[in-house]
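#lab-general

N.A. 3:47 PM
ok so I finally got the sequence cleaned up, no stray characters, all 409 residues accounted for. can someone with queue access submit it? mine expired

B.Y. 3:52 PM
send it over

N.A. 3:53 PM
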Amino acid sequence: MPSGPNYIALAVPFFFLLMGVELLIARRRGRRLYRLADALNDLACGVTQQVSLVFTTAILLGGYVFVYEHYRVVTFAPGSALPWLLAFFGVDFLYYWWHRLSHEVNFLWAAHIVHHQSEDFNLAVALRQAIGTSWTAWPFYIGLAALGVPPLVYVAIQSFNLLYQFWIHTELIGLTPRFDRVLNSPSLHRVHHAINPRYLDRNYGGTLTIWDRLFGTFEPEVEAPVYGITKPLASFNPMWAQVHYWLDLARTTSDAPHFADKLRVWWQRPAWRPAGLAPSPPPSDVTPASFLKYDPAPPRRLLAYVALQFVLALAVAVLLMVFGTGMPVATRVALAAFVLATLTTCGALLERRSWALPAELCRITLIAAGLLGFAHADLLPVYAAGAGTVGAAALATWLMARRGALAPP
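B.Y. 4:20 PM
back already:
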């Protein structure tokens, strides 16, 4: 089955290079755009999504290929530019409606909310993605297969649409009114991520702004945005970030007195509440000066340790993204489990949860056991590096525990 290159995986080095450039420029301007704990959580959410795609991309793309091969109504001549034009405008138009409905329909918002949880706005936020959005977006795009857009063209254009949106997650570029007439910009996307009442549910476009103008959701930036979600997540745990709104919907479903409302919960707007339950509070006016961000302020030693563990998890995740399809299933599962366990304990450590230290020690023990199980003469360099990492992690964990850095605040 044709899939083409993984453009997101190939772009990872450029993502980090541009984040470094953004950080340097911000420091020269005397601005603090990044908080390490928040940025690590942004990246952890994105890594979680990419790891999940290692197991599901074949299913999602396979469905597109099946429709294209059996149900397409148009076949374009080889070398024609028409499928590229159709894909460019079609992907962006369908992205607009998927994105808009993901803010207006509860079960779609449950997946998309992950991208909006950060209370900062920087390039790391662009990589904060949800596991569920690949599944909720798929039905919107499948029509392009029926219209004859070849799978490789679809993959390339959809990847371009997502990659374009990376650079618009920054506060360093000011107002660009002429540019905004056609293309999405940082200014317009700051509005989209803001929780100021006048900014809610605006600017859904991916690459183009024409859809927002046509369908009445365009809003320019006129006041300083405040970022996040109206009911703050207050957590740096990437696993909790992925599931918390689903659990909120489940609780609301359970509490709804009427059976019809138990079903309606999942299709209504996020602000809707069933009859008999307290109404949702209206969005409050906020300003950057008055808004208090979630910031448990972990010690620097702990931040350094978590950053190291995250880098190791990221390296394994990129390995999975690039080479995962050629790996045995058991190897993919083991590596994915390592990544997800590492990201979970990293979040718990940043929040200094009471269960963080036992979980981290358990994780290290399991990694050591796994390395012993996979030890082989041909893999001695890998085994030695892994064993050294486990030993260093265990020593650092023990030292920080003795100094109280892992104790709950």
